[in-house]
Structures are given as C-alpha cells and as structure tokens.
Design brief:
eight-stranded mixed beta sheet; four-stranded antiparallel beta sheet; 16 strands
Amino acid sequence: MSTPRRDITRPVNKFSALALILTAATLALSLASPLRAQRPAQPSAPQAPAESSPDYSIRKDVNLVVLHVSVVNDRGQFVPGLKENEFRVLEDKVEQKISVFSQEDVPVSMGLVIDNSGSMRDKRPQVNAAALTLVKTSNPQDEAFVVNFNDDFYLDTVHDFTNDITEMKDALERIDARGSTALYDAVIGSLDHLKKGAKDKKVLLVVTDGVDNASRRSLANAVQEAQRSDALIYCIGIFSDDDIKHNRSDMKKARRALTELATSTGGIAFFPMSLKGVGDISKRIARDLREQYTLGFVPEKTDASDSFRQIRVKVDAPGHGKCHVRTRPGYFKSQQERFPAKLEKSAS
C-alpha cells in the first residue's frame, strides 16, 4: 500500500502560531500541532562549539547573526586555511566584531525541491540521480526531505527528515509529471518545513525547467521568506534549446527568479547547457557546502526596527591572491512577519 502524500499548505490563521512563539516559546512548543514547523527556543548567549566535539553545533541567542561564507580564488578554487583576523564583517557599512569562527564540514538539514510539472517527465531520471548524488557526496550526518511540486507541492519522504538513501530515492521516484509550476509556493512551504531540521545549517536545492505560473504567492514573497530564513538556496534551471528559442521571455523570467532566490541567501543558481551537466553541478554544490567558513556576530546596532540590514564580508589574505567572497547579502532584525505553512496528510 502506498504511503499517503503530505501536502504543504497554508494555515487558516497565519498569525496564531506566531503569537504563541512571541509570548511564550515553551508554551508554543507544547501546544503546537506535531505537523507544524516551529523554531526551537533559543539559548540566552552564543557559545562557540568545542573543537573536540564531532557533532558541531552553533548555540545561538536571539541576537547572533550566522553567516556561511564561501571564499574562492580567481580560478574558482576554494581558499582553505584562512584565519579569523583575515575576515572583516560589515553591517550597514559598520564593522562588526566576529564572535564565532569555524571552517569545517558540518552536517546540514536539506530540502530537495523538485519540479514535477508535465514538461519534466523525461528529465526526472537524470535530475533524481543528480539529487541523490548531492546527498551521497555531502556529510554522512546530513538529513534531508523531498518535496515534489507542480500545481501543488508534496512532502514525499515518509519522515520529516531522513538520511536513508532508499527513502529519498523512493520519494524522488513518485513522479506524476503533469500540470503547472507553483515554484514560489513550493519554496515558501519548504523553507518553513526546513525549520524542523535538527542541524544548524539549512539548505534547499531547487530544480525546475520553467517559469512559475501557478503560485498564490509572488517571487517577492519567496525572496523575503528566504531572506528571513537561515537557509542557503541553490537552484538549477534546466531550460531546453526549444524553450530558449521559442519562449525566450519566459526563460529570462525564470532565470532571473532562480538567480534572485539563490543570491538572496548566499547560494548559487546554475543553468547547465544540457541535462548531462546536472550531476557535476550537484557535486559542486556538495563541495561548496563542505568547504564554507562559518562566521557569527552580535550586531552593534540595537534598535528594534525590522528593516533589512545589509551585510558585506571582506577577506584580506596575503599570499592567496585576490579572494572572491560569497555570503547572504543581509538579514531582517526580527521575524515577526513570518507566515508559517502547515503540513497535512492528503490522499495520494
């Protein structure tokens, strides 16, 4: 008997869960539905992880801003061995004191968000293989879930998160390629589900072959939810030569959307020339995740406004040549306007 699919849907009252979190975090956790994604209560002070601990974890207080930073040279190669004093972090052009620094392969909570619309039918076998390649070449302690989307979007792993390759393979093979593309809704719902993950570092891989034409929410909504999350988003756009030739306007729109989603979080958007390139891209993403530096700082600005705060990270490392730095471009002070989604079981 097949496992019922779980539909990621929107709550009727989008503010009720938020009010519980803000007024009493422990009460919210005890009363919330087991299917609603909630952010755990935060410790009162940041602590750097003990170097000897194999289960690396950043303990965050509400004020700590964590950045995952990729540093490469002019040849696009990762630059290892940088020291804390070779980094500078600026928030709204004001330099901040780095209070957390690390460069190690830490496990992640990951969502695989895969387009299941009609145009993807012939592409899914290679896309599925590439998604599994990402999982297999990442940290063995990673945990992941699979969301397939077309007009709607479904959590197709049996568990909220799993490191069982067979379970992920089965979820990826639940192919019902039909209908339209609700990309933005799928991203927003997946970002919310990602909050359930046990790992500090959160990642989404999004794979699609077209422009969004079915979402209730907009690209601006999806980008803001991405900026309000701690997640890195990597996107792969698989556009056929025929689409590029005959649907140039839609393909430009799709490319722009995927690029904005990725760069707003410090991730990358890829656009391979053919399906054959998807596997190598997955390996590159896994390498990027495993080689990143982690920096944290407590903002000097103490006002309570929820404006977007711009971040820039600079590296001055003599002997390494010119270094190119990639991280998220900023963050919001609070998350008071977060609209959590709800997972519900639905018939397959």
